[in-house]
Amino acid sequence: MFAKILGSSLILLSSSFLGFYYSKGFQRRIDDLRVLKKALILLRGEVNYALSPMPEALENVSERFDHEIAHFFKSIADELNLNQGKTLTQVWKKHAVEVLEKTYLNGLDIKNLIMFSENIGYLDKEMQNNNIHLLLEQLDEEIKTAIENDAKYNKLYRSLGVLAGIFIIVVML
Amino acid sequence: MKKESIEKILPAPLRDWFQTMKKRDIKGLQEIRLRVGKPVIIYMHNQEYYVSENELVSWGKNRYVVTDKDIKETMEFISNYSLYAFEDEVRHGYITIEGGHRVGLSGKVIVENRQVKTIKYISCINIRISHEIKGCSDSIMTYLFEDHQVLHTLIISPPKCGKTTLLRDIIRQLSNGYEDQEGITVGVVDERSELGGCYRGVPQNDIGMRTDILDGCPKTEGMLMLIRSMSPAVIAVDEIGSSEDIDAIDFVMNAGSKIICTVHGANVNEVKDKPILGKLMDKGVIERFIVLENKNGIGDMKKVYDKQYKLIGMVVEPTTNKH
């Protein structure tokens, strides 16, 4: 009997945990998107007002906060400074795939980021701004959708976790 | 000249060739020209070369043709991935890079309110390699003084004879001091960033320890600015030509500073016949004329004339000193 209770509670615990974990995923992606947005706004400032060259601009932005995205910017700046003859887009792509796997951003976000990199550095200020502006708008859109989804599915995942646990216990007993 | 400063800006397909360049050839390198869809052309020792299978050839079928991608990459490297930071330079059609090399650009020009706004589709790039040749003015320095006073000097030379190189070395020697001459304050207006080869305002070439430089500044305003702000004993400018330039030179002379400048021309008479420059010559204020001649090489013959256009000196450089 004791073993049964222990087993059932373990099942319930783990399934509830899973439910909560998934429901948190939305919130974490929203947080990451917001950090990315902040980083891009800082980058825009560097480009617009300080006219810093891209490697310097990326490095300056990366020093302002502590997050995987800051590491992402820093690693791009470091590689550009090596002057190995790679284009910004190549370097950006490589690190986007590597570093952003460690964040909660999804495939679509990464794709948007890579698209964005195809037009940076090789334009005048005005076009540079339009480009950053476009990505910021996309991010806003994504954040909005993510918040809606969070509200929609958050409770669902949690209750699904708990109920699935109870269901398994009932079936097994 | 540092090899890295050039290598850094070349597109990947041209880097292999460049790495195998010998020191002697690097010294003779003058221009690298990239044009979309055309073979890359290298000017070296006054000869044209092409790149074929990572070798320099003067003729061949398999010449490397520049692609659109190469141009784009080169532009990224030149501007350190930040073309937006060079808007003003692009508007003027050239960017000065680290090492003082000048990169000329051409392509589709965007005009707004009758002003050139930017060059949008860059299709031709000309990398002009800057060479410092320290000591190339040694042989003529003595002619520039009289009773320990610097003389107003005009350097006359056809294109590509090394007048900028010569002027740069004269500036350095005047500024640091030459033999028994004490160093003096030299003001340089470097409209096209060729003399100092400034990168972020700091000269990359050695132009002496008593030299103040206005980088990228229009000559006319620059000369007046220097007179007002830096009290130079000598003002040096490259390639004068407009009537405003002549007025500014007048102003410099009246302010008690000496002027050393260069001008395009084949000989003294030709310059005298030019309407604007002729005015300056007729005043009889220029005390020394140095005429460079291109005899089978760059600037290996220098003739020095005095105020009355009398030949007072001739220097022939051995051809080993080619640049």
Would you spell out the secondary-structure blueprint of this structure?
The complex is a heterodimer of chains A (173) and B (323).
Chain A (H helix, E strand, L loop, with lengths): L1 H49 L3 H9 L5 H14 L6 H13 L6 H11 L7 H48 L1
Chain B lengths: L2 H5 L4 H8 L3 H6 E7 L5 E4 L2 E6 L2 E3 L10 H11 L8 H6 L1 E3 L5 E11 L2 E14 L9 H4 L3 E2 L2 E2 L2 E5 L5 H14 L9 E5 L20 E5 L3 H11 L4 E4 L5 H12 L3 E7 L3 H6 L1 H8 L5 E6 L7 E5 L5 E6 L7
Parallel strand pairs in B: 10-14, 10-15, 11-12, 11-13, 13-14
Antiparallel strand pairs in B: 1-2, 1-7, 2-3, 3-4, 5-6, 6-7, 8-9, 15-16, 16-17
Helix pairs in contact in B: 8-9
Gyration radius over CA of chain A: 22 Å
| Helix content range of chain B | 25-40%
Structural class of chain A, by secondary structure, is: mainly alpha
Structural class from helices and strands of chain B? alpha/beta
The largest β sheet of chain B comes out as: 8 strands, mixed
Q: If strands are numbered along the chain, what order do they take across the biggest sheet of chain B?
A: 12-11-13-14-10-15-16-17
The main pleated sheet of chain A reads as: none
The tally of beta strands of chain A, per DSSP, is 0
- The helix/strand order of chain A is HHHHHH
Low-pLDDT residue spans of chain A:
none
Q: Which stretches of chain B are low in confidence, meaning pLDDT under 50 for 5 or more residues running?
A: none
Termini separation of chain A (Å)?
11 Å
Radius of gyration of chain B: 20 Å
User: How helical, in percent, are the residues of chain A?
Assistant: over 70%
Mean pLDDT of chain B: 87
Strand content of chain B: 25-35%
Please give the count of helices of chain B: 11
- Strand portion of chain A, in percent? under 5%
Largest interface: A-B, 20 and 20 residues
* Count of β-strands of chain B: 17
**Overall morphology of chain B:** globular
